[in-house]
């Protein structure tokens, strides 16, 4: 399940994943928010929180891949907040493939992740 995170700074969208992600999570929650940002002509600054995660369906994986590729240059910053060992390993190996700037934060540093995603360009 994917739930929006409220109270984020202007220009930042965020979502918390729990349990198993399904394609409907992308269609119902993530894509409308991303398309709204793109519709304004803005780049995506996103915070993704994974404290507990049971994986994703094949259909959700496909939606994730399509989302990352669509408008690839419109992804500005992706802050991944997790302490899950397997996710840390995967992102350390393949994070370079992520569009835009990518940074992982421990769950205890969630506020730092949000500030990083919102920070002005240097």
Record field, number of beta strands: 5
What does the largest sheet look like?
Answer: 5 strands, mixed
Can you identify the CATH class?
Alpha Beta
The CATH homologous superfamily is termed STAS domain
Structural class: alpha/beta
**CATH topology (fold) name:** Transcription Regulator spoIIAA
The unreliable regions are none
The CATH architecture category equals 2-Layer Sandwich
**Which bin fits the share of residues in helices?**
25-40%
Tell me the β content.
Answer: 15-25%
Q: Separation of termini?
A: 35 Å
Shape, per Cα inertia axes: globular
What would your notes on this structure say?
- It is built from 4 helices and 5 strands, in the order ββαβαβαβα.
- It is of the alpha/beta class and 122 residues long.
- The protein has a single domain (2-118), classed as STAS domain (Transcription Regulator spoIIAA), CATH 3.30.750.
- It has a 5-stranded mixed beta sheet, sandwiched between helices.
- The longest helix is centred in the N-terminal third of the chain and has 17 residues, at 23-39.
- It is globular and about 35 Å long.
- This is STAS/SEC14 domain-containing protein.
- It holds the Pfam family SpoIIAA-like.
